[in-house]
């Protein structure tokens, strides 16, 4: 299992977009992502550093593994 890196919200958004997620809207400092065919939305804060627990939860909600996500970075 790959180690979870410390990344910014902007880098996380770019990685999820590579995985097929699309920016639905921006509300304040959060980017809301949706993926066609899934009932889940991802809300990613545009902070300089995302906490590991939040990033891990986003990856899990997206139906991905940490290894898959790290490859997209």
Please, could you describe this protein's structure?
There is one protein chain. The chain has one domain: 2-Layer Sandwich (Metal Transport, Frataxin, Chain A). Helices cover 37% and strands 22% of the residues. It contains three helices and three strands, in the order αβββαα. Strands 1-2-3 form a three-stranded antiparallel beta sheet, with helices on one face. It starts with 8 loop residues before the first helix and ends with a helix.
Quick description:
With 73 residues, this protein is α+β, with helices and mostly antiparallel strands. Helix content is 37%, strand content 22%.
How do the strands and helices of this protein lay out in sequence?
Blueprint lengths: L8 H10 L3 E6 L2 E5 L6 E5 L6 H10 L4 H7 L1
Antiparallel strand pairs: 1-2, 2-3
């Amino acid at each position: 299992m790959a180690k979870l890196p410390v990344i910014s919200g902007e880098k996380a958004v770019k990685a999820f977009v590579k995985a097929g997620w699309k920016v639905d809207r921006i509300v304040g400092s959060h980017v809301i992502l949706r993926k066609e065919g899934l009932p889940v939305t991802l809300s990613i804060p545009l902070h300089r550093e995302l906490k590991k627990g939040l990033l891990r939860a986003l990856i899990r909600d997206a139906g991905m593994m940490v290894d898959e996500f790290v490859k997209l970075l």
